[in-house]
């Protein structure tokens, strides 16, 4: 018998099977959340992302307790930048660029301090950490394979930033047949107005890309 649970969400409650739901935490890296990283280099106020940390921590704890498959992602590149499209490297108008040396090491480069996931959300053994060169977590990674091998059908997608890597991942997941729910308080943007609109875009038109909920509702449904 299929066990069905329900998450209170917009545009309507999301039913899920607890055996086949996974938590995906997108790019909660020092490079985006701390001074001296990629986010700051682009001229953003990185403190705006910090509101997502505590809700993500609580949801991560609940997901671990419920035995969910948990995946963390990191955006970044090889030290020789061979996986970074020139178009990405050349974009932006800051004084520093991807690969330049900043206070947390080379910006957006794998293995550097800034590329690490923030300590509050550090992955534990058994939780895959996927390094991605692009904005979407499916692009040039084995995320789809990992999920399909576990018959995962529903994704809880958290992380930063709402309208960039979270949104891109939700769109990619949607086209691959996954149901996605985004807990609004577990995501954040350097542009609060983009955050709001990005969430509305997900749930609009009867849930064109998925569902929007919050950490408390999801934690409640996982218990
Ligand atoms: C950005 C991300 N904003 N993780 N990356 O460049 O959203």
Automatic annotation (TrEMBL):
Gene3D superfamilies in the cross-refs: Isochorismatase-like
GO molecular function: hydrolase activity
Coiled-coil residues: none
Keyword tags: Hydrolase
SUPFAM superfamilies: Isochorismatase-like hydrolases
Domain Isochorismatase-like: 22-208
InterPro entries: Isochorismatase-like_dom, Isochorismatase-like_hydrls, Isochorismatase-like_sf
One Pfam family cited in the UniProt record for this chain: Isochorismatase
Name listed for the protein in its UniProt record: Cysteine hydrolase
CDD domains per record: cysteine_hydrolases (cd00431)
Highest taxon of the lineage: Bacteria
């Amino acid at each position: 018998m299929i066990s069905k649970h329900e998450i209170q969400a917009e545009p309507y409650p999301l039913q899920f099977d607890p055996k086949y739901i996974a938590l995906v935490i997108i790019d909660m890296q020092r490079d985006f959340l701390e001074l001296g990283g990629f986010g700051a280099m682009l001229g953003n106020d990185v403190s705006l992302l910090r509101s997502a940390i505590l809700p993500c921590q609580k949801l991560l704890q609940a997901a671990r307790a419920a035995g969910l498959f948990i995946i963390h992602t990191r955006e970044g590149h090889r030290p020789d930048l061979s996986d970074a499209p020139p178009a990405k490297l050349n974009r932006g108008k800051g004084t520093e660029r991807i690969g330049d040396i900043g206070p947390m090491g080379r910006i957006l480069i794998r293995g550097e301090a800034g590329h690490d996931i923030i300590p509050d959300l550090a992955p534990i053994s058994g939780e895959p950490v996927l390094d991605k060169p692009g904005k979407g977590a499916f692009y040039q990674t084995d995320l789809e394979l990992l999920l399909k091998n576990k018959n995962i059908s529903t994704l809880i997608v958290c992380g930063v930033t709402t309208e960039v890597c979270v949104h891109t991942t939700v769109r990619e997941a949607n086209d691959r047949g996954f149901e996605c729910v985004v807990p609004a308080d577990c995501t954040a943007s350097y542009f609060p107005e983009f955050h709001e609109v990005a969430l509305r875009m997900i749930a609009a038109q009867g849930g064109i890309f998925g569902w929007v909920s919050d950490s408390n509702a999801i934690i409640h449904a996982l218990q």
